[in-house]
């Protein structure tokens, strides 16, 4: 065997190993980082699953727009996930992999028809596999809702393959109706998977013309495409907030830059800093544009291309058309929008189609051919590097996403309404609040696991704990809110399972009576623990969670181990109740404040909801409602000097005060001294708060914060008052 043959074999084996490693670790990432939690748009689209469960869903509802898309077929997959897997994303994530595999199959089937060298075919097939399965597409692979992004390019690739096969069969005199009908069905699926899917139907028309399919087939294809377009745009309504199309017409260079950046977004996976990142992406995208135009010119010049090559060209044009439509609607959002991870999937298909189109055309017999082959090899090597580097970054980002999602899961399981945590999975916390009771009652999503439905119960198996099995700590408890004599708390710590030599993945909290009052998840970075305790062999032993408990009660944290076994990690006494409601008549003299309150966000004078009425005391009132429950913001009162250990103020809230707090700050340093949740009170009353000893006689600021955007989440307060007696007010 010659040196050249050995080198060629080495390259082929290497890329095959890389491809196998990428595919296997992507599947492992879905198992490890995939979550049963609904993410982002899944929360709004869950309305359709809910209607299905309640028996009120109509068939026509499945064609409702989701933004500019009609996601009929993705919704069928979401329903299957509900029927088979209780909305745990198991089916959705599985389809992500299967659909990506379908795209790969279609492209490689076309490539196999063009490539005569089996070794070269295996090498480029492996590179294409690595690119299409790279976790640079983490946003799509790990989000069940993204079956549509995989589905749009998969259906297009399958349709072009089926149409090419129908032409080949017709030329051989074999029945071609089956694959041609399959192509028509696939463009129907594409149209009702994502809005750009309609492009696939219209690209079949030039395919039919270029391949001389015959007048009848051209007219039938044209008629089918027009029928799909009419059905799609029937009762269609434009989406507000997108870029005006006139902007792209009047800014052609900006449009071309966005378009090129979109087609070159694989470069962003390298982690290059700006402005080099944008320049590199635009350069790669410009190369892709030129190669696409060259392929198009080649086909128009010869009009005698093999059906497989025309199909690959159609797939490139499909992604190019997708990029053009995206640029029209989102150019004013900035170049960062073009770099979104969701767009890496179609761009990956674009470049793999280019590789499979041009590789069989290599010409190594002259200097020009060798130069072009070398340039092509550099591009392919760069794309492979992007895929591998993006895969490694995607794994890290997937781990971080899993931790954030798990934190939101535990807040929901613990029935703790922490807005900032909820917003990590959907920006409008109220939507989550609306759906959670239904999910809990029907054991869906995060509630599908029986161990996630223990809140308020006293499991028998918790009474038998394993001594010395775990080491850990219950480090911190932060007060989030208080309502009905119950505190909502965030907790952190660390835990290590000594027997298995692993960090603890799940924990739960119990109160003094042994009732489950909250959940926590492990895997958070705590490198300090590993440095301090040699027995701990991981830096990811931290945990964070949520619980609800009465004031000044003992809470115990348990590490959950396989087989319904547990061990105690630590225990904590919840904060005492340092605030309580008092009658307005008990408020003492007004506390002098040198300046008017500093207002931000929704806070304004007389900003309470009219339902609360006016304050009977003769003083200025400030509220955060100011016209809508969704207002948030802060009001700073002070600095002032408190001469007694307690102060009071009149207050009123909306029906939900979970995210209304008063925070006492040191006026000089700004350090938080204590946090007081506002109790729910629909009528004006007084709230008396206990000041920490360090605050008495010193300059402090009282900051009122409205952190709730949901219905009934607002508060209003009057002036500050002294409480003469140091004894608690009865």
UniProtKB/TrEMBL annotation:
Source organism, top-level taxon: Bacteria
Keywords: Membrane, Transmembrane, Transmembrane helix
Transmembrane segments: 6-31, 93-112, 118-135, 147-167, 182-205, 217-235, 255-273, 280-298, 310-331, 343-361, 367-388
Protein name, UniProt field: Transmembrane protein
Organism: Nitrospirillum viridazoti CBAmc
